[in-house]
Amino acid sequence: MDVDKILDLFKKCDFTHTNCDTVDEDVLNYLPKEFDYDWRTGASKLVLIPCEENYVIKLPFKGNYHYFYDENEQFKTFSIPGLPALHEFDHCAEELKLYHIASKYHTSQILLKNIYIGEVNEEPVYIQQKAVTFNEYYDSGDEDYFDNESVHTQEEIESMEKSYEKSNVYFVGDNSKLDTWLTDVHKYYGEKQFIKFLQFIDSYINDLHSENIGYIGDRPVIIDYASFYG
User: Fold this and answer.
1) Rg of the chain (C-alpha set)
2) What are the tens digits of pLDDT across the range 211-228?
3) Which domain holds residue 46?
4) Which end of the chain is less crowded, N or C, counting CB atoms within 10 A of the terminal residue's CB?
5) pLDDT at position 76 over 90
6) Listed residue (10, 45, 48) closest to 30, CA to CA
7) Which segments of 114-206 does DSSP mark as H helices, in order?
8) Are residues 125 and 62 in the same domain?
9) Are the C-beta atoms of residues 9 and 35 closer than 8 Å to each other?
10) How far is CA 67 from CA 28, 62, 73, 149, 229, in A?
């Protein structure tokens, strides 16, 4: 599907007050019946997953939406060299900004890049390479606990933990799924890059969980890395 066809999907949608509670009435009900897709939503964006494509479509909610009360602030613009004017409180644009920063520190390999493709009805539209989440990759469901030792050797786990201690970063806490993913990161990228990733994440990302981390093949990636402002 080319860019014009993607944007054309949303020509009947009104994004003025769209949030995670109104995606049906504002967006999904207006999509073409022949469009075959799945979808996910969180506090900051709607993600459409076309069944026959290798990418997802990301639609940020306008403004700083809060779960506990309705508040939609207008987009504020900022710029990144080589890109059109982007919008503050657009969490997809925030990801573009973080990817740009990560590129300077040679840590962007772990971030799935957003691609801005244009606007429709004043709504910025992005695509991102399709990945599977941690829960999908390991078929772990909604359970909080995952046994790292069931997929990694003790040597692999201990090697990750030693590198983790060297990083002087302590953002993980007691999270067995994140620990498992970090073991995969260490195994795939190596200790030097692993420590650089940890330090970057510690400085810029504070909302990692099993639906925001995932894989392209066996390559560990972060899918959603804009911290929620609400």
Assistant:
1) 18
2) 889 999 999 999 998 865
3) 3-129
4) C
5) no
6) 10
7) 134-137, 154-167, 176-189, 191-204
8) yes
9) yes
10) 20, 14, 14, 37, 11
87 in the same domain as 47: yes
d(Cα 198, Cα 189) in Å, to the nearest integer? 12
CA quadruple 93, 98, 101, 105: dihedral, nearest 10: -150
What pLDDT is recorded for position 8?
Answer: 96
In this structure, of 28-32, 52-56, 67-71, 221-225, the range with the lowest mean pLDDT score is 67-71
Residues whose CB falls within 8 Å of the CB of residue 168, separated by 6 or more in sequence, listed in order: none
Residue with tokens 């009947």: 12
Residue 27 corresponds to which tokens in the numbers above?
A: 């967006």
CA 84/CA 61 separation, integer angstroms: 19
Task: Return the half-sphere exposure (C-beta side, CA atoms, 13 A cut-off) of residue 169.
Answer: 21
Please report the pLDDT score of residue 204 as a whole number. Answer: 87
Q: Could you tell me the two tokens for 15?
A: 């994004």
Provide the number of structural domains found in the chain.
2
